[in-house]
Design brief:
By secondary structure, this protein is mainly alpha-helical. It has 2 domains: 68 residues, Histone, subunit A; 41 residues. Helices cover 84% and strands 0% of the residues. The protein is extended, with a radius of gyration of 22 Å. The chain starts with a helix and ends with a helix. It holds the Pfam family CENP-S. This is Centromere protein S. One of its GO terms (biological process) is resolution of meiotic recombination intermediates. One of its GO terms (molecular function) is DNA binding.
Length: 121
């Protein structure tokens, strides 16, 4: 088996495991059961959708003449699902705010260090 095939199989197994755990959690919360076939079908569908998403994201970045996929590409990908689009927009705003807060914190630390150094002189 080639390295690419091995990676593909490991990813597929990870998705199957994660879907199984999520189904188990949902089943416990709602007193339902998922058959092995249902879990396998959900996992396979999830894996295929992720593969399509990855190819679409690469195409969006390439179209924009970039080598890196951006948050804007992800938002574009989610445009057909209102709920997913809203969720991604909210997460994007949260991350932007966290980055802003981190920069402010680091700037404040630098200023206080500079002030300390000036007072020592």
């Amino acid at each position: 088996m080639s390295e690419k095939e091995d990676t593909h199989q490991r990813l597929k197994a990870a998705v199957h495991y994660t879907v199984g755990r999520l189904c188990q959690r949902v089943a416990e919360e709602h007193r339902r059961e998922f058959s092995r076939q249902a879990v396998a079908a959900i996992a396979e569908t999830t894996f295929r959708e992720c593969d399509i998403f990855a190819k679409d994201l690469e195409a969006f970045a390439r179209h924009a003449k970039r080598t890196t996929v951006s948050a804007e590409d992800v938002k574009l990908l989610a445009r057909r699902s209102t709920a997913l689009s809203r969720h991604i927009q909210n997460k994007s705003e949260e991350l932007a705010q966290e980055q802003k807060d981190t920069r402010k914190k680091n700037t404040g630390k630098r200023k206080s260090r500079d002030t300390e150094e000036e007072s020592k002189e």
